[in-house]
Design brief:
Elements (H helix, E strand, L loop, with lengths): L1 H21 L8 H4 L2 H5 L20 H5 L1 H8 L9 E7 L4 E8 L5 E2 L7 E3 L12 E3 L5 E8 L7 E8 L2 E9 H4 L4
Antiparallel strand pairs: 1-2, 2-3, 2-4, 4-6, 5-6, 6-7, 7-8
């Protein structure tokens, strides 16, 4: 009896693995273009900060207090976004990132409500090499490849601009439109 039950579990596991592998859609989008230099150059940041030491993040309340150790450690690194900000990617689930944005000049920590969490794009992208969160020091553009804020069924590429300490969505390309037939 136990042997039959184990065989049933093994069959279900094999079926689940085969089903999961068969269900991953293929995306052949031109990521080199969609995440290219011209996207970031369209929204340049002020001159990057050259301060020898970034201001320590203010981690006395809210989510900043919850992640204070991680924020303090990673904010010691040089800014990596929009001239004088540091994006800190906090792991918050399998394939998910919860970004914090730290102002290296003031120490102010932002958890933008427009992007509480970013889930990875769950598609086979072949040889394409990109991250879920894409940004540069010399640009105010933040590009999410995947799904922001657990908005399942709306996967794609989201283009945000950082202005007045807020992210504003300025373009969305649905995966269904850019990936083509899979």
């Amino acid at each position: 009896m136990q042997l039959a039950a184990m065989a049933g579990v093994a069959a279900m596991a094999t079926t689940s693995v085969a089903w999961a592998q068969a269900e991953i859609p293929v995306c052949s989008a031109p990521f080199d273009t969609l995440l290219g230099k011209q996207i970031f150059d369209a929204q340049p940041s002020p001159a990057p900060t050259t301060a020898a030491r970034p201001t320590a993040p203010i981690v006395t309340h809210g989510r900043a207090k919850l992640y204070r150790t991680l924020l303090r450690e990673r904010a010691k690194q040089a800014p990596n976004f929009a001239g004088h900000y540091t994006i800190i990617e906090i792991g918050c689930g399998a394939g998910a990132r919860c970004p914090a944005i730290v102002d290296a000049q003031t120490g102010k920590v932002f958890f933008p409500p427009e992007l509480r969490v970013a889930e990875a794009l769950l598609m086979d992208v072949g040889e394409a090499d990109f991250e879920t969160l894409n940004y540069r020091l010399d640009s105010r553009v933040l590009v999410v490849v995947g799904t922001p804020n657990e908005n399942f069924g709306r996967e794609g590429i989201y283009y945000y601009v950082w202005r007045d300490d807020q992210l504003a969505l300025f373009r969305f390309l649905p995966a269904a439109k850019i990936c083509g037939p899979g």
